[in-house]
Amino acid sequence: MPKIYAIGDLHLSHAVPDKAMDIFGAHWANHSERLQNAWSDRVHEDDLVLIPGDISWAMYLSEAAADLAFLGDLPGTKLLLRGNHDFWWSSVTKVRQALPKSAFALQNDTFRFGPVEIAGTRGWTVPESAGFKESDDRKLFEREKLRLKLSLDRLSPDTLHLVMLHYPPFGENGAPSEFIPLLESYNIHTVVYAHLHGAKAHAAAFTGTYHGTAYHLVASDALHFVPKEILTL
Question: N or C: which end of the chain has fewer CB within 10 A?
């Protein structure tokens, strides 16, 4: 039976080797190879892998080609979402033209996989986070709420609803942001998010079920670079 996996924050750098992630700690050493091995061991061609942002360190779409090809060679269908470090992600039309056949980009729309439909947006730092600055972040936060609603509005009533976010929809203390009631109003079954790095941030992140919706932190270092099984169809 097909399965849905998720893993974000891949931070690939095949064309920009000066961005090797092991500068952030030994646990990142050879992470691309470890990801490739774990992915190939678990994911099959009829599975879907959600990748909620921070896919490549490339600055330009042409630089990202090697990282996109790397993903294209891995088994399964891949659904990509833009993260805050995906500077190579220009217009979604150009991104979609550059993707390998097995990969799709999610932006202001939805993606259907059998009985499941996935919506999502990048998100932003939420007001419940200590780092939120009203003057800097409020406009971006409100814009991302609108983008999420645009995507949610395109969900079909006869599908199981999943959502991809890059930023967490909770503050560091587990306080729900304004994203949560919006998600609940669309009967979302599962939400995956990434963005958070380091043992302290991972430990403080909200995971589990809240008001009937399951939330998964799927940053690659939190998963030890092993795609997490989210759902079996």
Answer: N
How far is it, in rounded angstroms, from Cα 202 to Cα 193? 12
User: What is the pLDDT confidence band of residue 128, given thresholds at 50, 70 and 90?
Assistant: very high
Distance CA 160, CA 27 (A): 35
- Cα–Cα dist 198/191, whole Å: 21
Closest to 4 measured CA to CA, from 159, 153, 202, 145: 159
Q: Output phi, psi for 214, to 5 deg.
A: -90, 135
Quick one: CA torsion of 128, 134, 139, 145, rounded to 10 degrees? 10
Kindly indicate whether the domain formed by 3-232 is annotated with CATH number 3.40.440.10: no
- Over residues 169-203, the pLDDT tens digits come to 999 888 999 999 999 999 999 999 999 988 888 99
The vertex-127 CA angle with 125 and 133, nearest 5°, equals: 75
pTM: 0.96
Domain regions of the chain by residue span: 3-232
